[in-house]
Amino acid sequence: MKYIDEFRNRDLAQGILKRIHEISKRDVSIMEICGSHTHSISKYGIRDALPSTLRLISGPGCPVCVSSAGDLNRIIEFVRKRGDVIITTFGDMMRVPGSASSFQEEKARGSDIRVVYSPMDTLEIARANPGKEVIFYAVGFETTAPTVAASLLMAKQSGLKNLSFLCLHKLTPPAMRALLDGGEVELNGFLCPGHVTTVIGAGAYRFIADTYHSPCVVAGFEPLDVLQGLYMLVRQIEEGRSDIEIQYTRVVTWEGNRKAQEIMDQVFEINDAAWRGIGTIPASGLSIREEFADFDAERKFVMERGINEEPPGCSCGQIIKGVLRPYDCSLFSAVCTPGDPQGPCMVSSEGTCSAYYKYGGKRA
């Protein structure tokens, strides 16, 4: 059965690619704004199999990568000054280089910085260390924000006094608007992220089609999902349509996950947020509401603003916007590698440079 499925999938992929080649007549640029899409496209050679008329651009789809250098430098400097705190975060954040250090380097110097697989794990750490302040460094898009909100609600219900959250969550649709308004890259359509849209619903992109006349297709992450999503986008463009379509119908709906949205709305409010490479985007981030101020690390502690500068020679900011490809960065592969990353795009499992290096190496 496994081999039958493999042959069936291969035949389906070839059929979709044939249709894309047949209908693609004009030069178009499509941006995928999900790191999982970028890795699937690179791993399965989709970019090379497409017609020359179709250009794929990798956008700000990596939550670790889009976190600003200033925010990272701020928490690193805070950790250096406060030896009595425990910092928890997701694994990818550990090796992201700041201006002078990283979480991994500070941990090696003695700071108590721990990797967790879920923000819920931080509650257990806080219970086990009542004499220490525990801070969860919360990054991510709409996919992870509901679990952080649920963790905060549980912490409040449990009466935990030594736990707080540094909330740096980002919202996807405002970033899409900023890229279109910026005009640095000509975009004809978006391959929208499946997991994010599971939460927010495909209707969240309606303004992209209505205001910017840019078609969007929400796709899954298997190679067949990506190919079908690209076919749906090319078909829209060639037919002169600007619609919001869902390829990932087995998971995504128009309305999204109402329960997750309610939890997010209960705990967070929308604010301006700093994005690496893009700058401050209005109404693109989440902050903790006043009624949960006791769990807001920014209110609980004094955290000075960090230096907002990229590592020397690093082009991650331009790569995140799609202005440059990893191959265009002078550090890529020669100096910046997964073993010695110079910027976040090479660190994260969802980073564009990581995908290009893993599946393309130095090939341009």
Automatic annotation (TrEMBL):
* Gene Ontology BP, a term: protein maturation
Record's keyword terms, sorted: Iron, Metal-binding
Give a GO molecular function annotation for the protein.
Answer: carbon monoxide binding
Pfam families, per database record? HypD
**Record's InterPro entries?**
Hyd_form_HypD, HypD_1, HypD_2_sf
Family matches, as NCBIfam families:
hypD
Family statement: Belongs to the HypD family.
Q: What's the protein name?
A: Hydrogenase formation protein HypD
User: Native species of this protein?
Assistant: Candidatus Nitrobium versatile
Q: Tell me the lineage of the source organism.
A: Bacteria, Pseudomonadati, Nitrospirota, Nitrospiria, Nitrospirales
Coding gene? hypD
